[in-house]
Amino acid sequence: MRELLNFIQKNIYWLHFILLIIISGLLIVSNNQFQRSKYLYVVNEIAGRVYSVTSNIKSYIGLRDANADLLERISQLEESVCSYKNRLELLGDSYADARNLQLNPSVDFIPGRVTYNTYTKSENYVLINKGSKSGIKQDMGVVSPRGIVGVIMNVSDNYSLAISVLNSKFQLSCKIKDKNYFGPLVWDSKDYQYTYLENLPRHAELLSGDTIITSGYSAFFPEGLPVGVIEGVYKQKDDNYNRAKIKLFTDFSALSNVLVIDNYWREEQVELLKDINN
Amino acid sequence: MKVTWLRLLLMFFLLVFLQVWICDRIHILGYATPYIYIYFLIKLPIDTNKNLVLFLSFIMGMVIDLFNYSLGINILASIIAGFSRFYLLKLSTTRDVFESATPGFATFGKSLFLRYASCLVFLHHLVLFTVEAFSAFDLLRIIFSLVGSFILTMTIIFAFESINTEVSKR
After folding, report:
1. A172-176 and A160-167: which strand pairing?
2. Which member of B20, B80, B136 has the closest CB to residue A189?
3. Which residue of A has its CA nearest to B76?
4. Among A13, A46, A122, whose Cβ lies nearest the Cβ of B51?
5. pLDDT tens figures, A122-135
6. Whole-angstrom Cα distance, residue B109 to residue A182?
7. Using CA of residue B49, residue B53, residue B55, residue B60, what is the dihedral sign?
8. pLDDT per residue over A41-85, tens digit each?
9. pTM for this structure?
10. CA-based angle B32:B35:B38, to the nearest 5?
């Protein structure tokens, strides 16, 4: 017994070191979703408060660009509203009926501001200054005025953390506008401006400049939100499919205003998809 | 004695804030990010209890991890740096350095201090970048980030140290 105590006393430095190594090693390895979510709930509130100080200042500096982005988005929306109106007019009589129809909106947008955002690591996250008090829940999609940003992963009272498109663990089904070929959007952890759309059939004719939009197959995003444009098409390693290099519309190095999408049918969709997966 | 610890406490908070608010946002060419919080471990007095150094490096790593949304990576890097600090100090100190002195240009001399600091910083960065890269291994990227960040961190530490000695001279 005494020898054991002696041994411990002599080597306490080493033992202490090994203990701490084991603790940190366990923290790194056990980095799974469940433990992470509990840890993140606390971290969100603390880090959110600290980071919101700088983001408050930064948001003033970036107001000019943010305004330009918003104006552009408004003009796009105005255009599409006009075109829809024209189409309705063309329909003639049924236009009057259609106007009287009370349609429930299927999606709701919750505006928020980014308080913390990384884009150079292999796993990036975006912290948003709205939380469960504003009605944000897990698995909601996040978009910027230009394109998609990510999916809410964790929510605390006043802040929520979204897993960014720029995260090696993130996958989202997207498709090519007007062509309907679809595949998972995957990031290769290298350049924050580019990502890849994989598993595209070899016979599909893909051109640089084709627009990529969300497919609506996942419950996170409704169909048709802008993602990016194709920059080039390459053969995949296993050779049966093509992968397209995509330039993202969203500029992650200057992310400030975002919208969180509340899809009213999200829970229903998730429920249905669960049955498939099991 | 008390004054030293008060100063160290102040330095701890200052370095955390600098790291979190400024340095974590620097990505020169997308590779180089300075990790200056390690300066805290470098500047602990020579005769600080070895176990206390380990504990402090654990705490420092934990705080940085918290703000970085990472789990354990910075802890691991800083405790390995804190652990090897003892041996590096043994190598770096000559006999005429006081036991209770704080490592710095004034006590160690420029070249000796830079050697000691660069060993510690390099070790810390090496662990940090290799562990961080586990999820997407890319050797070239690791080397670029390691070298770039190392140079940046050492430059900042050199600047801090120069200012420090200038101020204490007056």
Report:
1. unpaired
2. B136
3. A24
4. A13
5. 778 888 888 888 88
6. 63
7. positive
8. 777 777 777 787 777 777 777 777 778 778 888 888 888 888 887
9. 0.71
10. 150
